[in-house]
Design brief:
2 copies of one chain form a homodimer.
Chain A lengths: L1 E5 L8 H13 L3 E6 L1 H10 L8 E4 L21 H10 L5 E4 L3 H13 L8 E7 L3 E5 L9 H19 L5 E5 L10 H12 L4 E6 L11 E3 L2 H26 L3 H21 L7 E4 L5 E3 L6 H16 L2 H37 L2
Parallel strand pairs in A: 1-2, 1-4, 2-3, 4-11, 6-9, 7-8, 7-9
Antiparallel strand pairs in A: 5-6, 5-10, 10-11
Chain lengths: 356, 356
């Protein structure tokens, strides 16, 4: 197992990426290709007394920043750590790629350099939410505008991922919506509901609201990238707000501080449970090889967990399964179209017979 | 001050509405018209030993259920407690109307019976979120599809409400989006961003993400009804999930229970802070008289708080202010259109002069 790592992406690179890779190397059975500015990587390692001699380093001088246009990865910054890393992945020099860099550029590079699985209409960014059960939210921001069929495919792809990584036999797929009834949402959600409920390859459980999603109502939550992103960030924001308020309570008096000490272990456990960085990065689903997006503000631990997820993804059958599901998806669509065409034919013949 | 109350709306009516009104009557200086099934109201009052002789009761036999089509309020169920209550409001028999019934029907009735303020394109349902500062989210579900101009007006209306009810001089208006940059979101958000930032009557602070909204970044959060509803419900869901997890920690051992006792008062305060029912109901903004939607599952306390909000709304200058703002909004739009027309005219004349 060889993991290719973008050392220059994210707000805290290369400090936290170097530390993260070293932590990963201690914990996981894998080898690593570090892509980035070699002198900088070596400087950070020396400063932190970290031994990086066991890693392959591929030097790159260019860096994609958070402000860069996504297309730069295939246009102006083709020699950046991100672009070079993805080319290495595409060439089969490693088994997975991890980056905490510019999301748009990573998504663009994954689609155009690593390339989509055949038949995938749109790749999507999946994020596993730390709810009562892990819930894969797909898409969380890559595709702001989508079609009904894109959403149907997100359901298929998300199910394959949760089967492969979490071992869930028939993942329950829900559609993020503003009500439970089939008629809810915009024309997009109404159309997607119809397609998803007709798709016999997935276990569609209907519309899911944000108020019930945390309580075990589904394993995969399908959304367009806009509302998926709104949902993801509100989960982040509200979680942070509540933990902050709780901290305020626990520091409110000497007696409270004492009580907090008693609860410390359990409270830390709760915080860890709720911490998205504990659950690794976000897989870009629909791409022919594992590409994992770590959070832009990842610290060493979060980056290490993203590497853990990359290893699990590469180790699983998820991509193979996903490709098969998409193949079946397209076969079904073709069969449906042919059937529709056949059904229309006799009508036309009848019409012709009726003519003088 | 006279409040008209729909006694039959919501999952827990008329038990909780009767109790809620009695609590409100004790706390607030107002009189009440109870609209609903008189024998049932009297039975509930007798069962709970509540004196309701001081209230006016208007008997209605029909009830709008949560499953009813919204248009029933003006078609098949015109003698329901909701429809009759809103007619009383429209006729000036009371100063505000409160209902925990079917949201769609209430919104339809508010628009068609009580009627919109002149110049308001679309009314919207506002919900005050219990964040670091109170944030009015508008719209939270009434208008699933909207135009850029609708969103601009939501900003104007929301600001008037926060000025009138919370005394905020220049409410900061944000646009719910998937990123901070002006280019973020779909064409709808991009267009609304442009209009909102050009509108000199409101204090537009740009795009706001769900991750920063809880931390004092704005006073009014403008959204289309679909993503607004997704946001609202995720706030609800995540809040519930976290409070549930916290409860688990506090009951995890005898020592934890003891520590929890010490923190009880502060933790209850925190829970109260986060409890939407403490913050009353949702005003339907853009309607010519105060209509407040209480949560469908309101208990007596939540219903009482919705009545409190109705009183504050009716007591304030918010509707008058809102009407003036909308008048100015339309005057500006008209002036802009005229200016555009004038700017085009000389060009046309030049064009004509150029012709042989």
């Amino acid at each position: 197992m060889k993991i290719i790592v973008d050392m220059m992406g994210g707000d805290r690179a290369p400090e936290e990426t170097v530390k993260g890779v070293c932590q990963a190397a201690q914990e996981f059975n894998a080898s690593y290709i570090l892509v980035g500015n070699q002198p900088e990587i070596e400087r950070v390692a020396a400063e932190n007394q970290l031994d990086i001699r066991r890693f392959d380093i591929v030097h790159t001088a260019q860096v994609i920043t958070m402000e860069d246009d996504p297309l730069c990865v295939v246009r102006t910054k083709t020699e950046s750590s991100m672009a070079v890393g993805m080319r290495l992945l595409a060439e089969g020099k490693g088994d997975a790629f991890v980056s905490s860099g510019n999301t748009g550029a990573l998504f663009t590079g994954a689609t155009l350099i690593v390339r989509k699985i055949k038949g995938v209409l749109r790749a999507g960014i999946g994020t596993v939410l730390p709810f009562q059960n892990p819930v894969l939210l797909l898409d969380t921001g890559a595709n702001v505008t989508v079609t009904e069929e894109n959403l149907e495919q997100f359901g298929v792809m998300g199910a394959a991922y949760m089967r492969g990584i979490y071992g869930i036999d028939r993942p329950r797929v829900g559609l993020l919506n503003n009500g439970a009834e089939a008629c809810k949402g915009t024309a997009l959600q109404q159309g997607a509901y119809r397609l998803l409920s007709q798709n016999r390859d997935i276990n569609f459980v209907g519309n899911i609201e944000g108020s019930t999603a945390p309580f075990g109502s589904c394993d995969v939550l399908v959304a367009d990238g806009f509302s998926g992103n709104i949902f993801l960030k509100s989960v982040e924001g509200v979680g942070k707000l509540l933990l902050g308020k709780l901290k305020g309570v626990l520091y409110s008096s000497p007696a409270a501080k004492l009580a907090a000490l008693t609860l410390k272990k359990q409270l830390m456990g709760m915080k860890k449970d709720m911490d998205p960085s504990e659950h690794g990065g976000a897989p870009i689903l629909g791409i022919s090889r594992p590409v994992i997006k770590a959070h832009g503000s990842s610290d060493a631990k979060a980056f290490k967990n993203a590497i853990r997820q990359a290893i699990a993804y590469a180790d699983s059958e998820a991509i193979y399964d996903l490709a098969l599901c998409i193949q079946r998806f397209n076969a079904h669509k073709k069969a449906e179209q042919e059937q529709q065409a056949q059904e229309q034919e006799p009508t036309q013949q009848q019409g012709q017979q009726g003519q003088p």
